[in-house]
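Reading group handout, session on sequence-to-structure problems. Before we discuss, look at one worked example. The prompt was deliberately terse, the way you'd type it at a terminal:

> structure Hedgehog/Intein (Hint) domain-containing protein

The input record follows.
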Amino acid sequence: MAVNWVGTVSNKWFDAGNWSTNTLPQSQWTNAVISTPSSGTTTIIYDQADSRTIGSLEIGNKVTLTVNTNSTSQVFNSNTLTIDQGGTLAFNTPGSALLGGVTINGTLQIFNSASTITTYSKSFDGTGTVVLDNSSIGSPTSLGGMGSLTTVLNNGSTLYLNGNVGGAGITFGTPSTTGQKNSIALPDYQQSFTTPIKGLDANSTITVLKSGNVPQSASLTSNNDGTYTLTIKFSTNNSGNDITLTKVSLGANSAPGQPTIISNTDGSWSVENIATGSNAVCYLEGTMLLTPDGERAVESLKAGDMISVREGDQTLSRVIIRMGHARMTTGTSGMGDVDNTPVRIRAGALADGIPSRDLLVTPEHCMALDGGFIPARMLVNGMSIIYDRTITDYNYYHVETLNHSILIAEGALSESYLDCGHRSDALMGDAQVTRLHALTWEKDAALPLLTERTRVETIYMGLVERAASLGYEPSTTHAPVNGAASTGLYLQLENGGRLRAMRVRGDQHLFMLPEGIDTVRIVSGAARPFDTIGPFVDDRRMLGVLVGTATLWDGGSWKEMTSHLTSVSTDGWCNVEDGTMRWTNGNARLDLSSREPNASALLSLRIIASSTEASTTAAKAA
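And the output record:
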């Protein structure tokens, strides 16, 4: 006999009077069914830990069951679970849940990094959506599959998969504000991963789990249809075990990066820097957008409303097909773009009366200037355009029209939402839009994306001059620099000791090494060209020093050290440049190979440039 939800007492699961038998489903091995009247919705709160088994649970259309107990023990146990289309099960608990056979045609949400969701079969069935927020499904020792589901990774989430079982699609969504990246974790054997991956950006990574195969390199190549193939090659001893991800789509404000293999402390490997840019592109609450009926606050708009767009010299009307909404908490790194700190474009910053009042957008949101779209982060001058660090939590909104459009926000021209697959329907109010082809920035944007320094710097300097003419004082804010900026370059030894250069001549730095030292770390200050040169430089790598040749005097002869140029390990290193030099990130490992016993040695490093000189690398290396 089924136990049905009647909800006559409250919205609490553990009020027995809310069930048709006046007993909890856990009190008897039975089938629990939660449905709702066709004219309404039902939200049920599950706020206690109970490890007793529910025989089966069906969550119906327009029903949301939220598990939010603070217990760290097992809080939920269901032998079988079915989430119907339109139904939602949300876990926001540090406790664990055991699920039997799972069929998701609605939505499963997991919000807590401490949540442990286990299934009997290590897999999920159904055609619905799984949304992970600062959480994970699976583990390095428990890999699963996603059936025909769509998975959304938000806020530093990880999906552990047992090969090519990624479901209907995987979407990289909202980035983390703590630096933890959204990740897909795969075993290290040969596979062609054909699941569509959408929205991949600078906050996304592919992890190769620990095993006997060592990734050698990674590359991203265009499929000439708006998607890319990511290939991960292994060392020559394990050639033929390549992993290929064949249907990768980048985020709307992302471009191909320089994929880099990173060695992790747990023995796994991460492929990072696959793409540039971030997925957080939107207007803050309170922004006034022009419509045919006058200006309206963005939060008051809904699908079906008309909005004004600029096409050439004309202002036309277009229908809004979708509105998206989410909440953001800013990070604490001190880097506004990384922290998703909102950009405040002050009234009149762009031109007389434009914007008409202060405009607040996310760092990656693009403004229409000089015939192209420029991310707001590249315009921040510390004067008339600033990161507003007084705002640490905010609501933001996406406005989507059928075609990518130029909207009029506070009188300034900026972009509508471009759906390149980096937002799930669940994050766009569950509204679905069917298109004949996937949208891309290159083919479908209303204006081209401008990030080249030659174009952006001229616009940036013009806005700085305008700010000065309006009475704004030049910015005295310094970019954050990590590490040993004030103490200079030194070598960190494994025992914690530090060595400074005994002699510096030009770009040659000479260090005396004690006996028994076969590994050192090159430590220096580190910063991003984006910060030290200017935000008009779209290079956000954390750079320390650029190391050229490294030679070691040991055992009576000089030996050229090449591990930093040839090693698979990228512990503290960026990509090799021109085959002859490589940037550190401010703390890079240098292996010295076998040392002569009971002897000191000399290490000579050619330091071609520091992070503040990143723009002159080629000239200094010549």
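Points for discussion. First: The chain has three domains: 2-192, 283-469, 482-621. Second: The two ends are 82 Å apart (CA to CA).
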